[in-house]
Amino acid sequence: xxxxxxxxxxxxxxxxxxxxxxxxxxxxxxxxxxxxxxxxxxxxxxxxxxxxxxxxxxxxxxxxxxxxxxxxxxxxxxxxxxxxxxxxxxxxxxxxxxxxxxxxxxxxxxxxxxxxxxxxxxxxxx
Length: 126
Description:
It is built from three helices and six strands. The longest helix has 19 residues, at 72-90. It has one domain: 2-Layer Sandwich (Alpha-Beta Plaits), CATH 3.30.70. Helices cover 37% and strands 22% of the residues. It starts with a strand and ends in a 6-residue tail after the last helix. It has helices at residues 29-46, 72-90, 111-120, and strands at 3-4, 9-10, 13-18, 49-55, 60-65, 102-106. It is α+β, with helices and mostly antiparallel strands.
């Protein structure tokens, strides 16, 4: 779904994957449920749309929508940094993430949609 700010229309979604330190299979049971809740909290706080969240035993998949002002690397830093801090403050067991991650973009703008947008805004001086 196309969203908008004062000066932009956008449809930006990112597929983010990251793993716990030492790739331990520790993200199960209550840890999995707690992390899912924390990821949703972070997205709400930062104005992101959490479309999908899949916590696997040894890695995490997130599908997140974001306004264009947020760089993908910033989103990943928010998710990993804040989630580890919140989890470690709230619970006795610890979560640590590796420094690495994967991020891929996903959008649905077709050539026709771009052409229509340009045609609709021909002659705009603002």
